[in-house]
Design brief:
Elements lengths: L1 H18 L17 H9 L11 H38 L9 E4 L2 E4 L3 E5 L2 E6 L2 E6 L9 E3 L2 E3 L4 E5 L2 E6 L2 E6 L30 E5 L2 E6 L2 E5 L11 E2 L8 E2 L19 E3 L2 E3 L23 E3 L2 E3 L4 E3 L6 E6 L2 E6 L26 E3 L2 E3 L4 E3 L6 E6 L2 E6 L23 E4 L2 E4 L3 E2 L6 E6 L2 E6 L10 E2 L8 E7 L2 E4 L3 E6 L2 E8 L2 E7 L19 E3 L2 E3 L4 E2 L7 E6 L2 E6 L23 E4 L2 E4 L3 E3 L6 E6 L2 E6 L24 E3 L2 E3 L4 E3 L7 E5 L2 E3 L45 E4 L2 E9 L2 E6 L10 E3 L4 E8 L2 E4 L3 E3 L6 E6 L2 E6 L10 E3 L4 E8 L2 E4 L3 E3 L6 E6 L2 E6 L24 E3 L2 E3 L4 E3 L7 E6 L2 E6 L11 E2 L5 E2 L2 E4 L2 E4 ...
Parallel strand pairs: 87-97, 110-130
Antiparallel strand pairs: 1-2, 3-4, 4-5, 6-7, 8-9, 9-10, 11-12, 12-13, 14-15, 16-17, 18-19, 20-21, 21-22, 23-24, 25-26, 26-27, 28-29, 30-31, 31-32, 33-34, 34-35, 36-37, 37-38, 39-40, 41-42, 42-43, 44-45, 46-47, 47-48, 49-50, 51-52, 52-53, 54-55, 55-56, 57-58, 58-59, 60-61, 61-62, 63-64, 64-65, ...
Length: about 1750
């Protein structure tokens, strides 16, 4: 035993040293076992004290220690190996350097380095830049620009759906669509691919139903179409056939048609076709060539019978014989006679149009009402019940409703059948266009006229061409591929066969790349003896068929194929791995990214390791790519850290232990174990356990916070609460007052703790005596008993149930309303109001019928009764109801279906032959027509009981009845005596082929007449050369002579022009290799108007002359009747005959459809002369002929001598001669020479010629002028303004002003002055846009929008020129989803102006005080409580400092604006245009598209706008109260404005705001905002309503009370509404401007004002006209402003524009006397202008 102990002791000491060495344990120390090494040593020293044990006991006690020492030795060895590895890693990391990893991009399944370029498809080019992939379309490829499909544009690669069943894709300019198959069975839910059932057929037949139309015809309903099939009868070979009774097929009549002509059905146009013949049917005679082969013509289904068309399978009665029942079958009509039933009455009556007699009809009487036989009516209480009176009996039946849509809306009041203008689905009614919930989360469904249309949700474009689909996701992604209808995973390889080719494809991140595989040709051929087998391949003892590919065993990198019986093997090509450090697994062919191979070592995916080459770097393997980074060194705590060899991080000398540094040799306590004492020695820390003295007790006790165990004292008990027996040591007991706690007595001390509670098996347990219990519920802070029901405290209209500790809530079950149109209550529909056609009405409220304006509806406890509006009784018998009116009036008559105007006389509809009626004040007065007097002695009664004669008296001779005789001499008439009346008819003349006819004197019939000119008649169609114009040609066509100059055409390269030639002829009659004979004509080119003729010459060979054909003038032909020339025709024609030149038109002129012709009527012939056009000065490409003009014109003139261009209308003097003045008139330069009169000057005066003038003038001896305080030399000229120029002449100032012509502008235009222009011109009126309320936007074109986004948006922006941009920032109003305008930002170039709450203004981030001027850009001022910003381009922004903003722009920005204010193009329908120019479907989508980033400063949370209906959320009562409060908009205070500004949009906005603001004081503010917005629009339209009062938005209630009016009190602003300057001196220039542009309400043109959109802020008046312009402009510290101004040369005085001479005398004060400041418009006395 001693030897064992001696052997163990050195081992224990060695292990102790190893265990305490630094860095050997995991975390710094070896974990302590229950018995430490020091304890073992102490136990060894104490061993002799226990020698009284048995002899074998020491070995048994030492055996566990030996086992434990063995385990300690193994752990120390393992720790030593780990320590070596860690030290090596640290040395490697210390030698590392940090290098920035080059950025890479991912595309096409691989990594691309920085700057690399690749093409993912044929239309896209990508580049890797800064680690990001940037792809752009390939330039110059038209097919890559996208596709156009059904009027919509799609980008390349974009996938879209045309309907719920069709998906299309745009790829390289072509659109390919695929159809989703529809499942069989019943109709699926809305939103599926096939959302509708097969439609039924007429007659109530369902789809698929089969019935027997007649004994031989079977019909079937298929897809809404009736298809009928008759019996299969054999073909007959006869002309006439008949069908015997009871048979279905016809038979031939005996001896009818030889068997050589088989009968055929009717062909086209009623022809029967026979083999080899064409026999007409009826009176139609088409050519037989149409019917050469009966088999080529297929008749359309249906029949034509007695002029009517019938569908296939239809049954009908013959219109000529009502006793024939006919049917249409296989394009043939078959009729059979009807059998009449027996009549039960003795005397049946045969009614017209009926086949069988019927009993005499008897009427029906019930309840005081009488109906005739056959009359139908609807019972008042049940609109679905139809009753009919039949033979005195009333028969009623329910109306059958056939719906034309699958989900019709509920029937209208008073009607029975549902309608298709909405949808009723799942117990809820939807309007047309309203979204409908879909079971498919990837579809968006909406109601469309009783049907549900679903469209797939839009998906963003994918960067790959073949994206795949993942279950549960709506949009395709590039993680897989979809190719030819199949799904493939990424990196999957598959084979296809396309067009007979073998293709091998692979899927890589949504891209499919395919390569064609060459298929070997069959080496064997078919022999004559039979098929020959192709050879197979044998390799490695295995046989492979021809063309098969396989991979040999044990050779994973080789692929083999059998080709012509020979195995061909080759190495398998690997695609590049999509990682940087792939690993080739053992037995694999290609590297993979499942692990990393780095510096020859393989690391597992996700493994961290130290770089062997650089131990100071730590690396990480992720999906085949290794990323390394420098080791982060901990901070040092000493002043001079040291770095040793092989170290990565510097450290302090001494020991570092538990985050602290200790000097060498220091002792310190262990930071976590108080029973250890640590010692720092040469950088190593040793912490041995403290030695404890031996204890005499067998069971020592280790007390808390003690290092050594102690012998325990005798335990003592604890007093029991409430008295009694004390509690023993280690006994558990409970407190009497707290049964939920359990206590333990330990040596006199008591420790208690709460009993643990098991988890409650319910969701909302209540608190029991100790633990939660499930016999009740604790929900939202309240307790409920099990089984108790209570309203939900969190969700409206929900009822909750507490059941065994769990609460379940569900919507309150509403009982079905006892009325058809219940109103929406707080939770359930109630019958205390009505909801009719999506509008709510109060009970007993009357309202107009939305569907029928002449009906008035009443809501009564959920029932809606509509009846026609009552009309006042009229005092006329035949009143007329005008169109658009509900009640009849006596201002017209309606008599037996005939409408007559007051006083109109027309034939009596009941007796049109003998009676006439007149409409008089709504009543028809009818009387008998007066009879003509009889001209014979013994008349007899005739028609209409009028006397008639039986003989006639004509030309003094009596003729008997029926006698014919010649008419008066020269009348060309033949007369006849008939019933006492002589009727004469003109002799019928033979028709003439010419339109112009003339009747010679003494002749009865006309003859054809040609054209008459200069007393000579030319026949119709002739041409001649007028003697006075040898190069012109005249022609006669329909009595119209057309003369024009010959237009020459050259057909050869070098024509020669002779002295008498009009057109240069070609020397030989040859064209394009063909020779023509003299007199032969031909067309040289494709133009049918060009003609060439070979003409004989007096001398020499024939020559070829070419010219354009002359077209006759179609004078008097309306433009709508002009017909263009057809193919190979040259001239247009007129669809109606031309108006002849008659006697009363002699000498008159008429415009021809061709503006180049002028036509005059002379000698009963229209003579049309072609006018010659002067040559314009501009190039040919710049010439154009305006519509209705003959000659081409240009926009400007080109002065070739000077080499410059001149605008149209501009005049200039010839630079070489001042006496020549030229003017540009539509491209032609017109010049005239000024003539000078003889000049005689006084003595001493000299003749001088001023520069730029033609004539000389007399000039006095040199004498200067004084003008506005400065000396002006004699002869000097200067400009006062754009219209006035002055000059100094002989010491006097002479001024001339340009006079402007009168101007007439359109309704949406106003006269306006442009800067630098003299005369006004018509410009589009300015427009304004406003944002107010919650907020609402009234666009420039007048559309009212509601948008509730709380971010920053573009309100209005110059999208073309970029002059300005106005942004608004909205803020949450306090209710869900509702916001209002919080601030406004105006961007003018690089300057940013922010209009903040309370009227504060900042410019480029710094606050400014008002008024503020920044020349020449803007001017900001405060008008009352409104901040107004005037900008140089004519922009105005008005801000009330709270939530209302208005933007005004001049008319020059029409069509250039974008943003929430619309596009300002005059059409409100297209205002919902997004930034891309596309129309958006909802207002929320439109508003969100104009969101912009907010300005500088800390960001704030914002929410996108969505479709919000605050009245629906607020409930029925809130909406009713909002309607009542906003009704003031339609009351008398605003009545004057209703005619100019419709109140309905503002009323809707007011109700919207009040619902959103909720009850309380905020509702008053919202109401006043809405009323003020409407009042502002009224003031802009020229109407100022007086609507504020003590109880309605009093003056103190609205901060924007002066909105849009400006401060006109005491400012001198007159009623014109223009800027006006008061005061006399230059320093007193007080200006007031109307904030609304005056052109909106119109300038007072009768007082001489015109609108100037960029005019001076200080205009000329009678009080400042003497102030120099420069000095006046210096005191008007604003940019130009839009206002009403006086034209140049006039000044303003008392709201009128007058001449300066008409101004009253003005006393001038100052340093300069008035005599030195002459009026520029005054002239020196005696001086001529």
């Amino acid at each position: 035993m001693a030897r064992a102990e001696a052997a163990l002791l050195p081992l224990v000491l060695q292990l102790t040293g190893l265990a305490l060495a630094p860095g050997t344990g995991r975390g710094g120390a070896v974990p302590r076992e229950p018995l430490g090494l020091a304890d073992i040593h102490d136990y060894q020293l104490q061993a002799p004290a226990h020698s009284s044990a048995p002899a074998g006991a020491p070995q048994e006690r030492w055996r566990p220690l030996e086992e434990r020492l063995g385990r300690l030795e193994a752990e120390v060895t393992e720790l030593r190996e780990q320590n070596k590895d860690l030290q090596g890693r640290v040395r490697q990391l210390e030698s590392c350097e940090c290098h920035a990893a080059s950025p890479q991009c991912w595309g096409l399944g691989r990594a691309w380095p920085e700057g690399a370029r690749w093409e993912p498809d044929a239309c896209t080019a990508c580049v890797c830049r800064d680690g990001a992939t940037h792809c752009v379309p390939q330039p110059g490829l038209p097919h890559c620009h996208g596709c156009s499909h059904n009027g919509q544009a799609y980008g390349n690669g974009e996938t879209f759906a045309t309907d719920a069943c069709t998906t299309c894709r745009c790829l390289e300019g072509a659109v390919t669509c695929t159809q989703k198959p529809c499942p069989r069975g019943p109709c699926p839910e809305p939103g599926a691919c096939c959302p509708h059932c097969e439609p039924g057929c007429t007659g109530g037949h369902r789809s698929g139903e089969t019935w027997q139309l007649e004994p031989c015809v079977i019909c079937t309903c298929q897809a809404g179409t009736v298809q009928c099939q008759g019996p299969s009868c054999s073909e007959l070979n006869c002309l006439e056939s008949y069908t015997p009774p009871g048979e279905c097929c016809p038979i031939c009549r005996p001896g009818d048609l030889p068997p050589t002509l088989p009968r055929r059905p009717l062909g086209p146009r009623g022809f029967r076709t026979y083999l080899g013949s064409c026999l007409p049917s009826g009176n139609v005679h088409p050519p037989c060539s149409l019917l050469t082969s009966p088999s080529r013509w297929q008749p359309s289904p249906g029949c034509e019978y007695e002029g009517q068309l019938y569908e296939e399978g239809a049954s009908f009665l013959s219109s000529s014989n009502p006793c024939l029942q006919c049917s249409c079958l296989r394009n043939l009509v078959r009729c059979v006679p009807m059998k009449c039933p027996s009549t039960p009455c003795p005397g049946p009556v045969l009614r017209p149009g009926h086949c069988c007699p019927t009993c005499q009809a008897q009427g029906c009487t019930e309840g005081g009402s009488h109906w005739e036989h056959g009359q139908e009516w609807t019972t008042p209480g049940d609109p679905c019940q139809i009753c009919q009176c039949l033979e005195g009996h009333i028969r009623c039946h329910q109306r059958e409703c056939s719906s034309l849509c699958p989900y019709p809306a509920r029937p209208l009041p008073g009607t029975c059948c549902p309608v298709c203008d909405g949808c009723f689905l799942n117990g809820q009614e939807y309007r047309s266009g309203e979204p409908v919930g879909s079971v498919d989360p990837c579809s968006h469904c909406r109601c469309a006229n009783g049907s549900v249309h679903c469209e797939p949700l839009p998906c963003p474009p994918t960067p790959c061409r073949h994206p795949g689909r993942i279950p549960g996701k709506c949009c395709p992604v590039c993680d897989s591929c979809e190719y030819q209808g199949h799904q493939y995973q990424s990196q999957e390889t598959f084979r296809l066969q396309e067009s007979g080719r073998c293709v091998r494809c692979s899927c890589q991140a949504g891209e499919v790349s395919c390569e064609e595989q060459e298929c070997p040709g069959a080496p064997c051929t078919l022999s004559d003896s039979g098929p020959q087998l192709c050879p197979a391949c044998v390799l490695g003892g295995e046989e492979f068929a021809e063309g098969v590919q396989w991979e040999p065993d044990g050779q994973p990198c080789t692929t083999c194929s059998c080709q012509a019986g020979v195995p061909v093997c080759r190495a398998l090509l690997c695609s590049p791995a999509p990682c940087q450090h792939p690993t080739k697994p053992p037995g694999a062919c290609c590297p993979s990214c499942e692990s990393c191979t780095y510096h020859g070592q393989v690391y597992a995916n996700g493994q961290n390791f130290t770089d062997a080459d650089s131990p100071c770097h730590t690396c990480h393997c992720e999906d085949g790519t290794v990323t390394c980074s420098l080791v982060n060194c901990p901070p040092t705590t000493c002043a001079r850290p040291q770095s040793g060899p092989g170290q990565c991080c510097p450290r302090c000398p001494g020991c570092a232990f538990a985050g602290k540094e200790y000097p060498n040799g220091a002792d310190f306590p262990h930071p976590s174990d108080p029973c250890r004492l640590c010692h720092c020695l040469s950088g190593h820390v040793q912490c041995p356990a403290r030695r404890c003295p031996p204890l005499p007790c067998p069971e020592p006790l280790l007390l808390p916070e003690e290092c050594c165990p102690q012998c325990p004292a005798t335990p003592s008990g604890c007093p029991r609460p409430g008295g009694g027996v004390p509690v023993r040591h280690q006994e558990h007991f409970s407190q009497p007052d707290d049964p939920c706690r359990r206590c333990l007595c330990l040596d006199g001390s008591v420790s208690c703790q709460r009993l643990p509670c098991p988890p409650a098996p319910c969701a909302h347990p209540r608190q029991g005596p100790c633990c939660p219990a499930c016999d009740g519920c604790l929900y939202q802070g309240k307790e409920f008993a099990s089984g108790e029901r209570f309203p939900s405290p969190t969700a409206r209209c929900h009822i909750c149930l507490c059941w065994e500790g769990s609460v379940s809530c569900e919507p309150r079950a509403c009982a079905p309303a006892q009325c058809p149109f219940p109103a929406r209550g707080d939770c359930c529909p109630t019958c205390d109001g009505c909801e009719y056609l999506w509008e709510s009405y109060l009970s007993s409220q009357e309202f107009p019928d939305p569907r029928e304006p002449c009906n008035l509806c009443t809501c009564l406890r959920g029932f809606v009764n509509c009846s026609r509006r009552p009309c006042e009784p009229l005092g006329c018998s035949h009143p007329l109801t005008p169109s658009g009116h509900c009640c009849p009036t006596c201002q017209g008559c309606l008599y037996h279906g005939v409408t007559a105007a007051p006083g109109e006389t027309l034939p009596d509809p009941l007796d049109p032959t003998c009676s006439i009626c007149t409409c008089q004040e709504g009543s028809m007065r009818c009387q008998k027509k007066p009879c003509a007097p009889a001209l014979c002695p013994h008349p007899s009664p005739g028609p209409c009981f009028c006397p008639v004669c039986h003989s006639c008296l004509s030309q003094g001779r009596e003729h008997q009845d029926g006698e014919e005789f010649e008419g008066p001499a020269g009348s060309c008439e033949r007369c006849r005596c008939q019933a006492g009346q002589v009727s004469c008819e003109r002799l019928q003349c033979p028709p003439l082929p010419c339109p112009l006819q003339v009747t010679e004197p003494g002749s009865c019939c006309p003859r054809c007449r040609g054209c008459l000119v200069h007393g000579e008649e030319h026949p119709e169609g002739s041409s001649w050369e007028p003697p006075d114009s040898p190069c012109s040609s005249c022609m006669c066509h329909e009595g119209v002579i057309t003369c024009a100059r010959v237009q020459c055409v050259t057909s050869c390269a070098q024509p020669h022009l002779g002295p008498r030639d009009c057109c240069p002829p070609c020397s030989a009659c040859e064209h394009e290799g063909r020779k023509y004979e003299p007199g032969e004509s031909f067309q040289p080119g494709a133009d049918p108007c060009e003609v060439c003729t070979c003409e004989l010459q007096p001398e020499g060979t024939p020559s070829l002359r070419c010219h354009r054909r002359q077209c006759p003038s179609l004078v008097g032909c309306p433009t709508s009747q002009l017909l263009p020339p057809g193919p190979q025709h040259c001239c247009p024609t007129c669809a109606q005959p031309l108006s002849p030149c008659t006697e009363h038109l002699q000498g008159s002129k008429l415009a021809s459809p061709d503006p180049c012709y002028t036509c005059q009527c002379q000698d009963l012939t229209w003579l049309c002369i072609h006018r010659a056009c002067p040559e314009p000065s501009c190039p040919l490409l710049e010439r154009h002929t305006p519509p209705g003009s003959c000659c081409p014109v240009c926009q400007e003139c080109v002065v070739e001598a000077e080499g410059r261009r001149v605008a149209d209308g501009e005049s200039w003097r010839d630079p070489s001669d001042d006496c020549i003045t030229c003017t540009c008139r539509r491209g032609r330069v017109e010049c005239h020479l000024e003539e000078c009169q003889a000049l005689s000057c006084p003595h001493g005066w000299a003749k001088v010629r001023d520069a730029g003038r033609c004539c000389e003038r007399c000039q006095a001896p040199a004498q200067s002028c004084v003008h506005q305080g400065r000396q002006v030399a004699s002869g000097e000229r200067w400009a006062v303004d754009a219209c006035t120029s002055c000059s100094c002449v002989a010491g006097a100032v002479s001024c001339q002003s340009q006079r402007c012509p009168p101007l007439s502008c359109g309704p949406d235009e106003a006269p306006a002055l442009r800067p630098g222009s003299c005369c006004p011109r018509c410009l589009t009126r300015p427009a304004s846009c406003m944002a107010f309320g919650d907020p609402h936007y009234r666009t420039f074109d007048g559309r009212l929008l509601h948008f509730q986004g709380s971010c920053s948006y573009v309100l209005a922006k110059d999208c073309r020129g970029g002059d300005f941009s106005v942004h608004v920032t909205n803020d949450d109003r306090g209710r869900s989803g509702v916001s209002w305008t919080h601030e406004v930002a105006v961007l003018l170039g690089d300057v940013a102006v922010r209009l903040l709450q309370g009227g504060a203004v900042t410019v480029d981030g710094r606050p400014v005080a008002l008024p503020f001027l920044q020349e020449p850009l803007m001017y900001v001022e405060l008008r009352g409580r409104t901040v107004m910003l005037h900008a140089q381009p004519g922009l105005q922004v008005l801000w009330d400092g709270q939530s209302q903003v208005e933007v005004r722009v001049p008319g020059s920005y029409r069509g250039q604006i974008c943003g929430l204010c619309g596009n300002f193009n005059g059409f409100a329908q297209d205002d919902l245009q997004g930034p891309e120019g596309l129309l958006l479907s909802t207002e929320a989508e439109f508003g969100n598209s104009w969101q912009v980033p907010e300005g500088p400063g800390p960001g704030r949370p914002c929410s996108k706008g969505r479709e919000v209906d605050p009245c629906r959320a607020a409930g029925y009562r809130a909406r009713r109260e909002a309607n009542a409060r906003c009704r003031v908009l339609k009351s008398s205070p605003f009545s004057r404005c209703h005619t100019v500004v419709p109140p309905e949009p503002f009323f809707a906005a007011c109700v919207y705001d009040l619902c959103a603001c909720g009850p309380g004081f905020l509702a008053d503010t919202c109401l006043c905002d809405a009323l003020e917005a409407y009042a502002s629009h009224c003031r802009q339209a020229g109407v100022t309503p007086a609507w504020r009062g003590p109880t309605l938005c009093g003056e103190g209630a609205m901060p924007s009370a002066s909105w849009g009016r400006g401060d006109t009190e005491g400012s001198g602003l007159d009623s014109v509404g223009t800027g006006r300057v008061t005061g006399g001196g230059p320093g007193d220039c007080k200006v007031t401007l109307l904030s609304t542009p005056p052109a909106v309400v119109g300038c007072l043109l009768d007082r001489g004002f015109v609108f100037d959109e960029c005019g001076p802020p200080c205009p000329r008046t009678c009080f400042n006209q003497h102030v120099p312009l420069g000095e006046l402009a210096a005191h008007c510290v604003r940019p130009c402003v839009p206002a009403c101004r006086c034209p140049a040369g006039l000044v303003e005085h008392e709201a009128h524009c007058i001449s300066p001479e008409a101004c009253p005398p003005v006393l001038l004060t100052g340093d300069q006397p008035p005599s030195t400041l002459p009026n520029p418009s005054q002239k020196p006395q005696g001086q001529e202008p």
